[in-house]
Amino acid sequence: MSDSPASSYFQTLVDKTGWKRMAKREQIMVGSLIIFMLVLFIIFFIFSPLLESRQRLQKSLTKKQVELQEIHSLEKEYQALQLQSGDIQQRLAKRPDNFTLFSFIEKQATTAKIKEKINYIKPSTVESDGPLQESRVDMKLQQITLKNLVTFLKGIESHTKVVSVSRISIQEHGKEQGYVNAVIQIVTFQKPAVQ
């Protein structure tokens, strides 16, 4: 019965290492060292990369789960904004076609008896890709009473006309007690003009 080429190669390799000439104790030590080296090789080059890969995968999975939760949260927020936008569009449809924020503010200022206290009033529009365009007016009122300011703000804030105060800054007016200065930003929405 002839030996296979692999076993004859292994036998030649064993002969060259001098394995048969070693004492039993030396063979045990060298064999243990070889087994130890094989175990280290398996740990460092097979198990360790697998464990690192598994940990990276778990971190990636955790990150993706967090991102998915954020996406769900953003989706709910988007749906709420869509509903709100639909509500705004319905209210805008009920608003008169000739409505302008500038004239609405002037009317409310006249009603609150502060029209002569307007230092400046600057209308502007904010470009938008959405179905609605933001129209904004920045204004400064000088030397008005808090009562008149509150009356004006109550008249300006209109749910039906879709007008709101987005920013306000109030300061005392110099040394005169009971009077204030106010810088107010008022916004509304409108459908973009068709060109």
Largest sheet: 4 strands, antiparallel
Helix count equals 4
Order of secondary-structure elements: HHHEEHEE
Strand proportion, as a percent range, falls in 15-25%
N-to-C terminal Cα separation, in Å?
A: 97 Å
Helix content: 40-55%
Q: Low-confidence stretches at least 5 residues in length (pLDDT < 50)?
A: none
Mean pLDDT: 84
Count of spatially separate domains: 2
Number of strands: 4
Rounded to an integer, what's the Rg over CA atoms?
A: 40 Å
Strand order of the largest sheet: 1-2-4-3
Describe this structure in words.
- The protein is α+β, with helices and mostly antiparallel strands and 195 residues long.
- It folds into two domains: 1-94; 101-190, 2-Layer Sandwich (Alpha-Beta Plaits).
- Helices cover 54% and strands 23% of the residues.
- The protein is built from four helices and four strands.
- Strands 1-2-4-3 form a four-stranded antiparallel sheet.
- Helix 3 (101-111) runs antiparallel to helix 4.
- The longest helix has 71 residues, at 24-94.
- The N and C termini lie far apart (97 Å).
- The model has no long low-confidence stretch (mean pLDDT 84).
